[in-house]
Amino acid sequence: MKNRFKNWAENYGLFLLVVVLLISVWEWVVKQGFIPSFILPAPTSIWQSLMENRQLLLEQHLPATLKEVLLGFILSLIGGVIIGGGMHFSRALEKVLYPFLVISQTVPLIAISPIFIMWFGYSIWSKVAVTILTAFFPIVVSTYDGLKTGGEEYREILLTMGANRWQIFKKVQVPLALPAFFSGLKMSVVYCVVGATIGEWLGASEGLGYFSRRMSGNLQADAVFASIFLLSLMGIVLFLLISLVEKQLLKNKIH
Amino acid sequence: MKKSFMVIISLFLLLLSACSAGNKDNQAGNKMVSKEKVQKVTIMLDWYPNAVHSLLFVTKEKGYFKEQGLDVDIKMPADTNDPLKLVAANQVDMAISYQPEVLVARGENIPVKSFAALVRHPLNQLMVPANGPIKSPKDLEGKTIGYPSIPLDEAIVQTMVKSDGGNPQKIKMVDVGWDLIPAMATKKTNALIGGYINHEKLLLEKEGHPILALNPKEYGVPDYYELVLVGSEKGLKEKPEVFKKFMAAITKGQKYVQENPEKGLSILLKNADKSSPLDKDVETKSLQILLPLMDAKEKAFGYQDPQTWKNVAEWLKDNKVVKTKVNSKDAFVNL
């Protein structure tokens, strides 16, 4: 038990120390008036605003955004794996799709938002579409690049042993691709939070992004930051969940 | 390697000292005796340059600012709320903002004050398709209204519907982000608030969507100043003469625009076409709409009526847009 705590302190102690220090400095700087509170509110007033609006934030806006994030992420995951895997198996598909994938990441979302609105209206799907657009790229690339990584020796051994392509794929390429794949997933899930927020800015009636924009319109910086805090928290929790799955899965593979 | 590092550091320090020197110039104001006695002033617009800003560009181009000993730098914001905050933080000297927004800001303890009314009546009007089923605000029951998620716009719609005998609970407001025009053009919303009769309405009509604009002031919303010039409390207290000179210069500029709208507009178009080209037809019509709304009649240009400020402050409080009590007398000053 003690050992565990020591381990934990070693892992996160420094981070927590820096966080506490940063928040203290932040609080002090704002309270002293070096930065006006309507530009950067003090951590305590952000917390107060979070408490004041907790019912609205936790019962309405957080679930709305979370739903968009999860839907977007799951669809990106399915689509990304299919496209990434497809590109691995077919050179032609790769040649056709890869440039489009890169192009899709260079389009400013605000410029094409009217198209999304025209297709999906102000339903949840316009936000999910923006989320997918930001989130599926890392998944595709990490799947594709992961499947390409090395394993030549294993492949040759298995080939001489008479394995077919599918068996090599399953036994060598997929396990070797997993670390890269999970890196992609972790990036993607964080992007999902950003994507859903931007999606809400383009038009919504609930969600943390909507709330932050609305409060910004009402010049309530503390409430804006309260919703940003929840968005960050959501990103961190999702990231940790993926890390947890990764750890479990890779541990099983090694043993 | 080390050398280049030193060079960079020294350059950086030089830049820093230059910046702070610049700040001091600003703060010292006209107390500082320089040879030319030119005072630098930064103004941030409410949005990208358009017809309503003709007077500023004319004043600059015609040298009226220089006559007053001012060197005015005109900046554009990234977001419509930025100008107010940046003025309050003393990053810019003055800004164009909205009368209700100034009161909202004061409710949040943001130290800004309006010193002139630029556009004296609401440009932000409720827009519905002409020839559609909606003829007056009460017809909006059960309909969807697009808005840029500004609580003020919600209050405007609710007041309008209520005063017209409708039930404000029965309307659905949807945030349409920045896409006011597409929201209407693709018929995703039945009505629109947050657009201007001299911009969104003209553009929609140009695209073939005739629009009926319902004026908030005819449906229970107090007549308010759409655009006002704001400064920080600190700035207005410490160097009122700069603001007075500024007003003197733009009063002359506005007179010129009023007498020569076409010339005024061409000066604007010349200044604006670098980054965001303007549509000449739209801006011409826009200026025609604006000029009478900017005219203070027998009062001096920019004059603000205490009663208007009082009415708007009360209305904002009644509609819970502003939560704390705001003294309307502190929110403005006639120079």
Describe this entry's structure for a reader:
Chain A folds into 2 domains: 1-35; 38-249, MetI-like fold (Orthogonal Bundle), CATH 1.10.3720.10. With 255 residues, chain A is mostly helical. Chain A has 10 helices and no strands. The longest helix of chain A is centred in the last third of the chain and has 37 residues, at 165-201. In chain A, helix 3 runs antiparallel to helix 4 (91-106), helix 3 (54-89) crosses helix 9 (208-217) and helix 8 (165-201) runs antiparallel to helix 10. Chain A is globular and about 70 Å long. Chain A is 86% helix and 0% strand. The two termini of chain A are 25 Å apart. Chain A has helices spanning 2-31, 43-52, 54-89, 91-106, 109-120, 124-148, 152-160, 165-201, 208-217, 221-254. By secondary structure, chain B is of the alpha/beta class. Helices cover 44% and strands 14% of the residues of chain B. In chain B, the strands form 3 sheets. In chain B, strands 2-1-3-10-4 form a 5-stranded mixed β-sheet, sandwiched between helices. Chain B has a 3-stranded parallel β-sheet with strand order 7-6-8. The radius of gyration of chain B is 22 Å and the shape is globular. At the A-B interface, helix 5 and helix 9 of A face helix 4, helix 5 and strand 7 of B.
Structural class by helix and strand composition of chain B: alpha/beta
Low-confidence runs of chain B (pLDDT<50, min 5 residues)? 17-35
Q: CATH H level of the largest domain in chain A: which superfamily?
A: MetI-like
Shape of chain B: globular
Major beta sheet summary of chain B: 5 strands, mixed
Run of helices and strands of chain A: HHHHHHHHHH
Of all chain pairs, the largest interface belongs to: A-B, 26 and 31 residues
Question: What gyration radius of chain B follows from the Cα positions, in whole Å?
Answer: 22 Å
Number of helices of chain B: 13
Mean pLDDT across the residues of chain B is: 87
Could you give the distance between the termini of chain A? 25 Å
Tally of individual domains of chain A: 2
Classify the beta-strand content of chain B into a percent band: 5-15%
**N-end to C-end Cα span of chain B:** 57 Å
Number of helices, where a helix is a run of at least 4 consecutive DSSP H or I residues of chain A: 10
Average pLDDT of chain A works out at 89
CATH architecture of the largest domain in chain A: Orthogonal Bundle
Order of helices and strands of chain B: HEHHEHEHEEEHEHEHEEHHHHH
